[in-house]
Structures are given as structure tokens and as C-alpha cells.
Fold:
Amino acid sequence: MSTEETFAEAEINPDGSTSGGPDVGPDGSSGDEGIPEGAGMPAGPEGMDPAVYVVGAFALLLALCGLIYFLRRKRRRDLGFDDADDLFSSLDGKEFNLNLPDEVEEYYQVKGECEDAGWEPGQGNANASPEGPGRRLAQALMKRCIADVPLLQFMQRESPGMNRLYAQSMCSVKQWRSFQTAESLVTAEVDEVRAEADEIEPGWSQVIWRQAFQYHTMLKNRQEAERKAMAQMAERKKLEEDKVAAIKNKADSERKRIDDAEKAAQELIQMEEREKSSKSSFSGKDNGIKKGFLNSKKK
Structure:
């Protein structure tokens, strides 16, 4: 619509105002300019209840936590652990609070006694005299070394898993520090044993741990064989006892059967005797009493 048509539709009032056309102010501007933008329209996002945002944020947080939990469990399964609870319970920091065996302190006591007896480090020939202090000290060190073997085997089993967990940020700081402390303890013990071995017999440090593992395996196999032998002996003893008990039970059952049969026979004999006695009392004995009574009356 043109400007001329717009003014043609407008009606001019006597006071100079217009009607029927657009609402124009005294300055020629439209009256719509004073109306706020969006007035009369439905409320948009600015009018939404803040509680909706809180609920939405909480739901988003739960979904994020669930996703993190799923990813952590998947990572543990990839590492070979099926149950996260079993993983952390088996790798609890307390498990790495290792202590050296008593054989360590016993070795140093023997060493002091050998030094008092004239032994000096580096003399060598520990096997020269079976009763000498060098021989005694070598035996004490080997005993200590064998007692250390289970600690080394434990750390060898746990070290790869703990290193993988640490690399994946899946173990606590307490667990990792406890593992490092135990690892340092065992490493120091290995080095100390090697140093003592060279003092007793130069060059012994190169083979002492291999010998200790061999002796430990031999002792373990011997103990296992003894355990199996004792278990077999106990099993045989139990079988013999069961056999004797079965024979005794059978004999007791047979004796009871015989006693019951004899008792039944005695009861049967007594019953027959009672029947005979009852029959005789109603036959001969009663007639004799009646006859005597009649005879005495006639007299």
C-alpha cells in the first residue's frame, strides 16, 4: 500500500487528529515504537523455573558418573581383572607391608660369634673346615637366602600388575607407595645377601641366589611329598579303622540277632508252659477237688 493510499484512508478530525490509519504520534513516529519487544508473546526460556536446570544438571552428572564407572570396569577387564572389588581387595596397601624373615637377624648373630672366633671377611675357603666359623657362617647365610625366596617370588608376581595399574592410574597413592617401600626392602635385601656372600667366599654372590631358589624348590617338593605321604597314611588308617568298625558292627549285629532269637525262644517256651499249666488246672486238678469235697460231705 502506498503512502498516498494510507493517508486517504485516514480521517481527519476537527481538532486535527487522524483516525482509521496508523497510529502516528505528534512527531510523526508510529505508536508501536513504545511497545516492548515480545510483549504479549508466550514466556520463553528466560521465564523457565530454575529447578528445572538443577534437575537437568543432576541427571547429567549421574550419566557422566555411570560412563566413567563403565570405562573403569572395562579397563580393569582388559587388564585381566573380572571383579573390581576383588582387584582392590587383593592389592590393598596392607598386603605390601612386608617384613624380613627371622633368619636375617639369626645370620648377624652367627656372624658376630664367628668374628669372635677369629673369622675375618674375605678369607675364603668357607668349605675347607666343616666345623670352622666360615662354614657355619656360609650355612647361616644360605638359610637366610632360602627364607628370602618367598618374598622375591611374591614381588615378582605382583610387580607387573602393579606397574600396569599405576600406568593406567588405577591404584591409590597409598597402594603405590606401599608397593614401592616393599620393593625397596626386597631389593636392599638381595644386594645385602650378595655383599655378605662375597665376604664369605669371593665370587659366591654370582650364584648364591640361584642356589637358594634350587634349595627352596627341593625343600618345597620334599615337604609336599611328606604331606602327601602323611595324607595317604591317614587315609589308609581311616580305611583300616572303617574296616574294623564295619567288622565290629557286623559282629554286634549278629550277636544281637542271636540274643533276640534266644530271647524269643525262651518267651515261646514260657508261653507253652503257661498254656499247659492252664489246661491242667481246668481238668485234673479241679475234678480232684470236687470229688474230695463230695466224699467229705457223705461221711
